[in-house]
Each structure stands twice: as structure tokens, then as C-alpha cells.
Amino acid sequence: MADQFDYSLYMSFEHSDNITLSTSEPISQNVIIPGVNFAYTQQGSTVQATATGNIEYRDYPGNNFSNQTVGSLAAQANWTVVPQRLDVFVQDYAGVEPVDTLAPNAPSNQQQTNVLAVGPTLHFRVGEAMTGQVELHYVNSYASKVTEFNSSRGDAAFRLFRDINPTDQISFNAEYQHVTFTDSTAGPNYDRYEVYGTYATRLTHFDANLTAGWTNIDYQSGGPHLSDPLARVTVGWRPSAQSTFTLSGAYQYVDAAQSILQPNSVQIGTDVVPLQPVAQVLSDVRGGINTGTAIISSDVYKERRLDASYNYRDERLSLTIAPAYDKLVYVNDTQLNQSDRGISFTASYKLRPTVTLSGFTTVDRFVYDNIDRTDKDYRFGIDFGHQWTPHWSWHASYVRQIRSSDAAAQSYHENEYLLTVVFTR
Predict the structure, then answer these.
(1) Which of 330, 397, 404, 401 is nearest to 369 (CA)?
(2) For 373-424, how does the pLDDT look when each residue is reduced to its tens digit (9 = 90+)?
(3) Which of 201, 203, 221, 396 has CA 20 to 30 A from 412's CA?
């Protein structure tokens, strides 16, 4: 298959009546945002690669804020050095995340993050019915402002796979990770050990991936020893060509770098359906690079997560309904402990072949038990899009967001207006 590279150039003009999301002193601000989206795919016999990304420049007239260049990237590449024996794998995820998730999402509360993993994978056979692989990866995590996130990791994994039949597979996995933090204030380094088994099935209309095992984490310098079960599940059901139901859950120890590097998804036929907490659902109507909701820190946390979604798509209408629950309990900084219950709804309808009306609503309730705080977030928006030539389109959008918080100076509301012109290759 030949390489495929697609891109689009856009120019957005944004106006916010409260760009700092202030409770009592809103700042009205215009923002000029030129940017580029791109997607690259290569599926050759030697190199297989996929990459999607976005780079934009944010110009704040009036000198209220410093101008910014931000980017996002989700990329994977595999180089087959020796067919069926040796591969070299590269994975990179970059994005914009908050500096302090407890503070409003003002321009000064944003930072660039990146997590990179690279290393070889050795494949081998065990008899006629079983295959295996050994992985050695180096992982680097970086944040432009929260330096305690910066780390270097060594990963090693041993895996065995056995096909039960053409649609079902079981595997045994043993993993070891050593984490070293660049900043001495990030806390003690630690070693992570995991042993787990996985059952996967892939049918025409139903996919499932079930994992169960155990995790041990040993902190150095007299830190705690953690030992708990591990469970993950992803299930997808497609009863028709238009409808897809998905379910994802996890009970596990994880940290911010692992969460970024292993985004949640489930394979449904030929589609990969993302399964994300509702707080991370990005609205199609806003465009550009959205700020995520990850807590960028060095701390390990125990995650209890359950996401579900229903997706419908036909020639004119597409919609998604996604409820979610997420509870995080941190090992060291317990003030970050939180639970999130939420639901999102997105819909898009083609009024004419070249005219589309889209809208979304998200509702979240965050509870921070150890600091006696509850936030209720509401966000909704609408977008009118017109494709006036095969390469040119424009969008007019309105987004409103509201936070009701029992913490002092944390409630706010904002109205955001956007006009975007797009050229697509």
C-alpha cells in the first residue's frame, strides 16, 4: 500500500467573554488561531506507521497573555528488521494538559506534554500452537511546566500467545518497569511488576478483551509497597452497520505517563472506537487543540473506571451517547483523590450534502473527598458548517461552559464564539 498523507489548514477567530474563567473579574479576549491538521498512513511490508497531529499558533491581541505555539500528536510506527523475528517499535503522544487541574483552564494554566516509547520486539515460536515475544522499551515523559512529571523508564515484557480457534486467543504476560524521575522533588523512584492473562475474541459483530492479573509496585528509599489485583475489560457490539455499543472498565494502578501512552480503545470490526472518560470527550464543534484533563504528576494512583457509549452513524445523522464513572485514589498526594460521574451527547446532521449542523452537551460531577470540594461542570455548543468547494469550508460555532463549585473563587461561566475557515487537501 502506498503512503497516504492528508492535511488541512485552518484559520480560527475566537472571542471569549471570560477567557480566564474567573468568578468575579472576567476578561474579554479575542484570539487569532492559525493551524494545521495532518494524518499519515503507511502499511508496507517493512514499515507500518500511522500518525495524526495538529499544530497551531495562538495570538492574543492586546498583550494580556503571551502568544503560544502548541501541538498534539498520536503516532505509532513499526519497522520490521527481520520478518517474523525482530521489529523496532516507536510510539509518541503529545498534547496540551492543565498545569493545575483544580484551577480554571486559563491560558496560563496550560502546558505541553509528551510521552515517547521506543525499542525492539523479538518474536519466537513455542511448538506449533504457540507464539511469543520479548519487548525492551525505553520510555520518556516530559511536561513543559510540571517538571516532576519528567521521567525515564525501562520496560521489559515477556508474552506468550495461543490461538484457541480462528476468532479466540489467550495470552500470558509478565512485565517489569523501572521508573527514574528527573526532578528530585518528584518522589522516590520505583519498580513495577505485573503478571496477567488475557482472553480476546473478535467476531463479525462482537469483540471483547478481558484481562486479569496482579500488580506489585516497590518504591525505593523506604517508600510504600503496593500489591493489588489487576482487571481490564473492553467490549464492543455492533448489531447493525449503523449502531455500535461499547463498554470499557478497569481496576488498576496507573500513572499519568502510562495513561497518556496507552489511550483506551476497542476494535469493532474495522473501526477503532475510543473509550474515554466523559471529561476528556472533545467536541467536534470547537476545532483545534483542546486542553485535556489529565492530572500531570509523578504519583501513582489506583483507578476504578467504567465507560460506555452508543454510536449511531448513517449518511446524514451521527450521534454518540456516553456515560462514564472514574474514581482515582493517589498513593502519595491524597488531595488529588477524586471521583467523576458524567455523561456526554454529541450529534451531527447533514441539512444538505454540503451543510452540516452539529451540537454537543457534556455534564460532569467531580468530588474531591479529601479537600471537601465538589465541582459540577456543564458544557454545550453548536456548530454550523458549510463545504462550499471540494477543498474549502467554513464553520461558525458557539460554546458555553459553566462550573458550579463549593470551593472559593472556582465557579465561572464563559461564552465562546468561533469563526473558522478551512482548506483541506
Answers:
(1) 330
(2) 999 999 999 999 999 999 999 999 999 999 999 999 899 999 999 999 999 8
(3) 396
The boundaries of the domain holding residue 109 are: 4-424
Rounded distance, CA 245 to CA 238, Å?
6
| Residue in 184, 302, 195 with CA at minimum distance from that of residue 254 | 302
Closest CA to 371 of 412, 401, 402, 410: 410
What are the contacts of 156-161 at 24+ separation with CB within 8 A? 157/133, 158/132, 158/133, 158/134, 159/132, 159/133, 159/134, 159/135, 160/126, 160/130, 160/131, 160/132, 161/130, 161/131, 161/132, 161/133
Residue 139 belongs to domain with CATH number: 2.40.170
If one counts the domains in the chain, the total is 1
* Dist CA 414 CA 152 (whole Å): 39
pTM for the whole structure = 0.87
- The closest alpha carbon to 237, from 263, 200, 274, 202, belongs to 202
Q: Which pLDDT score, from 0 to 100, does residue 161 have?
A: 96
Q: Cα torsion for 58, 61, 66, 67, to the nearest 10°?
A: 30
* CA torsion, ordered 91, 92, 98, 101, to nearest 10 deg: 0
Within 10 angstroms of residue 294's Cβ, the number of other Cβ atoms is 20
Q: What is the residue whose three cell numbers read 486542553? A: 291
Over the stretch 149-163, which tens digit does the pLDDT of each residue have?
A: 999 999 999 999 999
pLDDT at 96: 92
